[in-house]
Amino acid sequence: MTITQNIQKKLSDSAAARWSAMLIVSFTMMCGYFITDIMAPLEDILTKSVAEGGLGWTSGEYGFFSGAYGYINVFLLMLFFGGIILDKCGIRFTGVISCALMFVGAMLKWYAIDNSFGDAMLFGYPMQVALAALGFAIFGMGAEITGITVTKIIAKWFTGHELALAMGLQVAMARIGTAAALACSLPVAKAFDSVSSPLLIGAALLCIGLLSYLVYCVMDKKLDNSVAATAADEEESFKLSDLTLIFTNKGFWLITLLCLMFYAGVFPFLKFATKLMIYKYEVTPDLAGLIPAMLPFGTILLTPVFGSMYDRIGKGATLMIIGSFLLTIVHVLFALPILNYGWFAIIVMILLGIAFSLVPSALWPSVPKIIPMKQLGSAYAIIFYIQNIGLSMVPVLIGWIIEKYSTVETAAGTTYDYTLPMTIFALFGLVAIAIAVMLKREDAAKHYGLEESNMK
After folding, report:
1. 3-class secondary structure for the chain?
2. 101-131 pLDDT per residue, tens
3. Is residue 456 very low, low, confident or very high in pLDDT (cuts 50, 70, 90)?
4. Which of 28, 260, 388, 400 has its CA 20 to 30 A from that of 268?
């Protein structure tokens, strides 16, 4: 063993170095997640008429805007190319560019919401809706590429150590951003009497997140300079022919499809959850955003717990099956016309929080068991790309369904019947259960080690 290899081993085994790297990049992602869900609690304001103090959007326009997060990633394949860039150009270059894109997109989104454009139209939508969607799409491109970069960073530092716990803590910090957005967005908008003010605060946080990532870049460069051109360079060495190994891997595709179905039943649901609380469970608008906010708060505590469990005892595929089952139960309960009280919605949301902790804590650390490190950036990019199809198309579908089939005009005004939308979300959960069972069988046949512990 050479001196350089000894240095490399000391750096990889240093708990202080590992956890410092994780905390720095996780903070950047936390700032990004704050922007991702910041408009969800404001849906009711966005869709109210101008005379009522809203922006006059329709449910379909809101669905188009909410789905815009993944439009560039899905239709222009930028997330797929982002994974190749990550494997070819490295962590530092890719991360800085993607963080900058998040900031630019957030500022365009703020500009659109903060201004009125009269009757001007763009892409067949009101100018305000179209520009906000464009900003959200640019932000989404940066956020998803940053996400795969951060995931590869954690895999780089924690493989053979507390990988699932580290990824669980990264997810937990991201959920802090989501929870803060869901809980604080409406109060901030009311305090400043401006629906755009939460976006401006989020853009300021992204500036701090970008600076945080630059600090990590210094740390990463020192790491690379301190080791021989072996593992670090090999890790980022990539050939396009390597994509064949990913595309022909059945276990990889099962994890990818499971991710698609599971996340399609969670994040798009959160886009409409505040309004669900108002119109089905009769929660006041001032408090309605707090119930969906319980979801990320629950995952903050539980995801690291389940991640640590996976590190020590394994059972990753089993955890994914249980989480998918709970997701299905949750949406069935939301769809049924029973117990339309706020306290019942809180209980169901707690169950969703458990489900949303179980699956990610096992899913993301399982990918390095199936795909080699040098192809990991592209593998995560493909998973995120397929996931973005759901994140883009499902809000559009749900918004259209609510507008066409769930809107009910009464003498007291407009109300909404969420039975059909929640039934669709439950179907996503059923498919996720089937895929998780298939993944467990594939693991037993191919010996990926998904049911084995991560600690070595």
Report:
1. CCHHHHHHHHHHHCHHHHHHHHHHHHHHHHHHHHHHCCCHHHHHHHHCCHHHCCCCCCHHHHHHHHHHHHHHHHHCCHHHHHHHHHHHHCHHHHHHHHHHHHHHHHHHHHHHHHCCCCCCEECCEEHHHHHHHHHHHHHHHHHHHHHHHHHHHHHHHHCCCCHHHHHHHHHHHHHHHHHHHHHHHHHHHHHCCCCCHHHHHHHHHHHHHHHHHHHHHHHHHHHHHCCCCCHHHHHHCCCHHHHHHHHCCHHHHHHHHHHHHHHHCCHHHHHHHHHHHHHCCCCCHHHHCHHHHHHHHHHHHHHHHHHHHHHHHCCHHHHHHHHHHHHHHHHHHHHCCCCCCHHHHHHHHHHHHHHHHHHHHHHHHHHHHHCCHHHHHHHHHHHHHHHHHHHHHHHHHHHHHHHHHHEEEECCEEEECCHHHHHHHHHHHHHHHHHHHHHHHHHHHHCCCCCCCCCC
2. 999 999 999 999 988 887 888 878 889 999 9
3. low
4. 28
The residue to which tokens 């932000």 are assigned: 139
Which amino acid, 341? Y
**CATH number for the domain whose boundaries are 16-446:** 1.20.1250.20
Which residue, among 115, 111, 109, 120, has the nearest Cα to 39 in the 3D structure?
A: 109
pLDDT at 236: 47
Among residues 308, 287, 280, 265, which one has the least CA distance to residue 161? 308
Q: If you average pLDDT over every residue of the chain, what do you get?
A: 84
pLDDT of residue 233 exceeding 50, the answer is: no
What count of Cα atoms within 13 Å lies in the side-chain half-sphere of residue 76? 12
